[in-house]
Amino acid sequence: MVKKMKGWSGKLLWINLSKNEAKVIDYPKEWAKEYLGGRGLAIRLLWEYNPPQIDPFSPENLLVFSIGPLTGLPLPSSGKLQVASKSPLTGGYGDGNIGTIFSVEMRKAGLDAIVFYGKSSKPVVVNIENDKVLFENAEDIWGLDSWETEEKLRKKYGKFAGIVEIGTAGERLVRFSTVMSQEGRSGGRPGIGAVMGSKMIKAVVIKGSRGFDLFNEKLLKIEGGRAFKEIREKPNYNFWMREGTMATIEWAQEVSVLPTHNFSEGVFDGYEGISGRTMESMKIGQRGCPNCNMQCGNIIVDVDGKKSELDYENVAILGSNIGLSSLKEVGTLNRIADQYGLDTISLGGVLGWVTEASQKGLTRNIDGRKIEWGGFKTYKELIHELTFRESELGNVLAEGTSHACEKIGGCEFVVNVKGLETSAYDCHTAPGMALAFSTSPIGAHHKDAWVISWEVQNDRFSYGREKAAKVIELQRIRGGMFESITTCRLPWVEVGLSLEHYPLLLYYATGVKYNWDDIYTIADRIYALIRAFWIREYGGWNRDKDMPPEKWFKKPLTKGPLAGGKLSYDGYNNLLNHYYDIRGWDENGVPTKETLKKLGLEFTIPTLEKITNLK
């Protein structure tokens, strides 16, 4: 049995949907200290309990909800939930974080993780109160979008219940569907919503009443209060509250990284129509996650007269990337995606790719329409068709770009890594960001290492060791620490909240004194275990899987101040060599035995030895 812990409960709720059974179990105490929680706990559970090379839609594939030792506590932006599983989009490890009341209620219920196994025989709402679980018939809400679903459930369970759900896309197993909450909160880009749908879970509701068991609650509240105060006093705070991440549109245009026409260019002629300034002139409100005093969701009224919550990623990828220069039109596509439960980034990648494919005549045999850049009406139709799988083309697009290009052609201009469509930064002239995308533990996502700002300011076009080291440093902090403690990274990233708060907050919550070497080691352990999981699921590995999209090497920019720019194969391979060397991975991207032993991952060695030439 696990001894009494502080900061962690040491408990997880194991739910067998096939049998409508649930039990609370203790997990090894050392997992808490060695992986922190959130992402770290999720990958440890998936490695331990997921059958190797399982089909992501198999009932045996686990769905994990996990939180960390700082989740839900009175400190900045602590309302985050990690959702993780084997990805139906990439076939590897997939996760995402979602800001939601659910995370706070889960903490109050005394659970560090909830693990879903099996498949319900009919649509179900899993209703959790502390460790009591009810399996409630959801046939009356199956088929509703995410907004309609939550509206009905909130009337039933109350304003303060934690609720996460899927929309129509998750029900129909669209491979880039997400877990949704609170009309715009979305997490799990690599298809975690589809995993939820495959288990017939329409929603999960949770209420907790147990409070927090902390090492020193008084000092934690004081330190958390200091951090809240520091955020409000930062020079950039007022501007952030006006525009949030939307100011990145103008910056990305200026430095030629704004994705345009399926990442063919880094500048967009109509960028002003979707800019932060334009958004500010239209803004009617903003939303944020629990315990946040710098809300990032900017709300406008879209073409249909409905509210749409915007940030840089969804505006760039559903704007310039598909040739739309009207923020109201972009807002409409974004809002529809949120209602259906689609990942907006992958959606923009899919629409950008299929438009280029249509322009090149590749969709002629599957769809009679000619898809034009900026074709707002056509894009609305395609979003509906792929969500409901109503047309042949829609059914193909619902599989994501890697699967779709195998059916239609055009794989040479797919912009993804490991099957996950790329976040909204063109990397023709940003090799460090290309490396960050290519070595992200879930595929091409920006959250683990947004190195591009640093790169633009520091020897932008180099492929040297310092750049690889910077990517790893950011991965350790953003993807290792923040994804596992589990709180939002934006207070540090966007307004400059001091990182020195976090070891103190961890100590006051848990009683464990972590220094930065300890935190970096934990992050390295998490990244190495995630890489081992990918290797196990793929049945091997080579460095080609850590390469950026082919387009960035072969098709140079033709517009803007950096016209002619493109990535260098030799340069990128040199950069990747530095990355592997610093991480202690071999030339193919496989962690060495020495590295695995150093990180306490000896248990992975027998598996990896069977499928790789482990050094």
Structural notes for this entry:
- This protein is an alpha+beta fold and 615 residues long.
- It folds into three domains: 11-207, 4-Layer Sandwich (Aldehyde Ferredoxin Oxidoreductase,  A, domain 1); 245-417, Orthogonal Bundle (Aldehyde Ferredoxin Oxidoreductase Protein, subunit A, domain 2), CATH 1.10.569; 431-496 and 515-611, Aldehyde Ferredoxin Oxidoreductase Protein, subunit A, domain 3.
- It has 26 helices and 17 strands.
- Strands 2-1-6-3-4-5 form a six-stranded mixed β-sheet.
- A hairpin with a 4-residue loop joins strand 1 (11-16) and strand 2.
- Helix 17 packs across helix 19 and helix 19 packs across helix 24.
- The radius of gyration is 22 Å and the shape is globular.
- The mean pLDDT is 97.
Helices and strands, with pairings:
Blueprint: E1 11-16, E2 21-26, H1 29-35, H2 38-49, E3 63-66, E4 80-86, E5 93-99, H3 101-108, E6 113-117, E7 124-129, E8 132-137, H4 146-157, E9 162-165, H5 168-171, E10 179-181, E11 185-187, H6 192-198, E12 201-207, H7 217-233, H8 237-243, H9 248-254, H10 276-282, E13 285-287, E14 297-301, E15 307-310, H11 312-317, H12 327-340, H13 344-359, H14 376-388, H15 392-397, H16 401-408, E16 416-417, E17 420-421, H17 431-439, H18 452-457, H19 465-485, H20 490-495, H21 501-510, H22 516-538, H23 551-554, H24 569-583, H25 593-598, H26 605-611
Parallel strand pairs: 1-6, 7-12
Antiparallel strand pairs: 1-2, 3-4, 3-6, 4-5, 7-8, 9-12, 10-11, 13-14, 14-15, 16-17
Helix pairs in contact: 1-2, 2-19, 2-22, 7-21, 12-14, 17-19, 19-22, 19-24
